[in-house]
C-alpha cells in the first residue's frame, strides 16, 4: 500500500487531499480554521478546480450526456384551449356547410326546449310575463319594420320561450335589437337560436329568463 501511494503523482495526491479538506470545511464537518487557513483552502480549491479541468481527457468530456431539452407545452393539453379550438373548428364548418349548421342549431333548440319544459310553472308570473312580451314583440316589430307572420310566447316560472316566424327579407337583427331592449328589465338574460330561412320564412327562437343561476350549457349564444 505504501508503494502504491508512493508511486501516485504528487499533484493527484495533493488535489485529493485538498478536495477532502475543502469539502469538510464547506459542509461544516467540525473543521476549524483561522482566516489564514481559510484563505489557503480557498486557494487550494481554486488550484484544484483548474487541475481537475485540465486532467479530464477531451474524449471523456465529449461522452458526457447533454442536458435534457425542456419539454414543450402542448397548448391542446389545456382543457380551455381544447374547448376554444373545438368551438372555432365547429363555427368554421357551420359557415362552410349549411346542412351541418342547420343540424347544430336544431340540436341546440331541442336542448333548450327540453330544459324549458322541465321548469315548474308559476301561473301568476307566467300570465304577467306573457302579456309583457306580447307588447314588447309588437313594439319591436313596429320599430324595426319587421314583417312577422306568427308569434308563439310561453312562460313558466323564470323563463319565457319566444318563437317568431318572420319573412326572410326582414332584418331579424333589427327586430332583436328592439325586442331585447324592451324586455331587458323583466328578462335580462336571453339565448338565441335562428334557423336558416325555409320557404321564405325565418324562424327566430329566444329563451329569455330572469338571469338567476341556471344551467345554461345547452345554449351558449346570447341575444
Structural description of this entry:
The chain has helices at about 1-5, 10-25, 35-55, 60-65, 80-95, 100-115, 125-145, 170-185; strands at about 150-155, 160-165, 190-200, 200-210. It has about 220 residues and is of the alpha+beta class. The chain has a 4-stranded antiparallel β-sheet, sandwiched between helices. The chain starts with a helix and ends in a 14-residue tail after the last strand.
Question: Topology, please?
Answer:
Blueprint (H helix, E strand, L loop, with lengths): L1 H6 L2 H18 L7 H21 L2 H6 L15 H18 L1 H20 L5 H22 L3 E8 L3 E9 L4 H12 L5 E10 L2 E9 L14
Antiparallel strand pairs: 1-2, 2-4, 3-4
List keywords for this structure.
single chain, 223 residues, alpha+beta, Aspartate Aminotransferase, domain 1, 55% helix, disordered N terminus, transmembrane, transmembrane helix, membrane
